[in-house]
């Protein structure tokens, strides 16, 4: 790999350590470790400041939200600058009283805010009651320019939708990134657990192949009990970095925190898209029905 085009990246796969201060202290140590190992781009998991609170619907959870800018962005900005890394973060944003978003904030290596993305696709499923908390994003699928490249940042549930990945690619994203919080019901049979985890990985590999882009997904680990007496969620880790043909460049374990390091060749997409010119062969004249909810 040409060192001039190689981008060292790190995914901070972690469990919840309680309050925001405790989580941020661990994040500071992990980012320092990643930077010490040469990382220039570091990504954190979805809603890294605390537990995955969306397992139930409770208005008290809105107390966890904060403004952007706010206390966490100030702390994370200093962290990015201190270690000279581009830092992709994930916060519960209070935009106004009664208006909240699930928001990724990207800090450039000088500590400045490069941009933010508000989660567009919001689930409402058993254990993932996000529609109660988050207003769908209104910033669109716009890549964020940073000192290491043009980042197509989305969040978790967005990863199941090829449209988001494609729109990021069409807007010139050089990498697709997904801070994530996904896991299985501990009561499910192992075969069902395996199917769910494999489907998740396949969706990312599909985005990579279809768009000729590297994909980075950072998930959390550990069991988080449900506040309403259900079995909770065991987050399956498996954070990974894929090359532009869906190949694994690195993959984390399923059950332990890990600073996952990888080298991404930022020129490889150019070569892959020359032999697989999917963007050239798109039939944009025939896709009008994609704007319909369903073709009756």
UniProtKB/TrEMBL annotation:
GO MF entry, a single one: N-carbamoylputrescine amidase activity
Keywords annotated in UniProt: Hydrolase
PROSITE patterns (UniProt xref): CN_HYDROLASE (PS50263)
One example of a Gene Ontology biological process annotation: putrescine biosynthetic process from arginine
Matching Pfam families: CN_hydrolase
Domain CN hydrolase: 7-266
Domain of life, source organism: Bacteria
UniProt-listed PANTHER family: BETA-UREIDOPROPIONASE, NITRILASE C965.09-RELATED
Name used for this protein in its record: N-carbamoylputrescine amidase
Taxonomic path: Bacteria, Pseudomonadati, Pseudomonadota, Gammaproteobacteria, Lysobacterales
């Amino acid at each position: 790999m040409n060192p001039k085009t190689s981008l060292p990246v790190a995914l901070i796969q972690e469990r919840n350590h309680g309050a925001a201060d405790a989580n941020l202290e661990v994040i500071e140590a992990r980012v320092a470790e990643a930077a010490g190992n040469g990382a220039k781009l570091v990504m954190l998991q979805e809603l890294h400041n605390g537990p995955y609170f969306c397992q139930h619907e409770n208005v008290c959870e809105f107390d966890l939200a904060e403004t952007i800018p706010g206390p966490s962005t100030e702390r994370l900005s200093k962290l990015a600058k201190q270690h000279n890394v581009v830092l992709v973060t994930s916060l519960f944003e209070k935009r106004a009283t009664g208006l909240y978003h699930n928001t990724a904030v990207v800090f450039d290596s000088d500590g400045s805010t490069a941009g933010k993305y508000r989660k567009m696709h919001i689930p409402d499923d058993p254990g993932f009651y996000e529609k109660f908390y988050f207003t769908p994003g209104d910033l669109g699928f716009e890549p964020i320019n940073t000192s290491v490249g043009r980042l197509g940042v989305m969040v978790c549930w967005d990863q199941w939708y090829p449209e988001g990945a494609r729109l990021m690619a069409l807007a010139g994203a050089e990498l697709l990134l997904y801070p994530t919080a996904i896991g299985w019901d501990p009561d499910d049979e192992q075969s069902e657990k395996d199917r769910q985890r494999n489907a998740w990985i396949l969706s990312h590999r599909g985005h990579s192949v279809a768009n000729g882009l590297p994909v980075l997904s950072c998930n959390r680990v550990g069991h988080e009990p449900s506040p309403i007496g259900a079995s909770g969620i065991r987050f399956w880790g498996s954070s990974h970095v894929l090359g532009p043909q869906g190949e694994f460049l690195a993959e984390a374990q399923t059950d332990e925190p890990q600073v996952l390091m990888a080298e991404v060749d930022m020129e490889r997409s150019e070569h892959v898209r020359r032999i697989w010119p999917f963007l050239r062969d798109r039939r944009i004249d025939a896709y009008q029905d994609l704007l319909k909810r369903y073709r009756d």
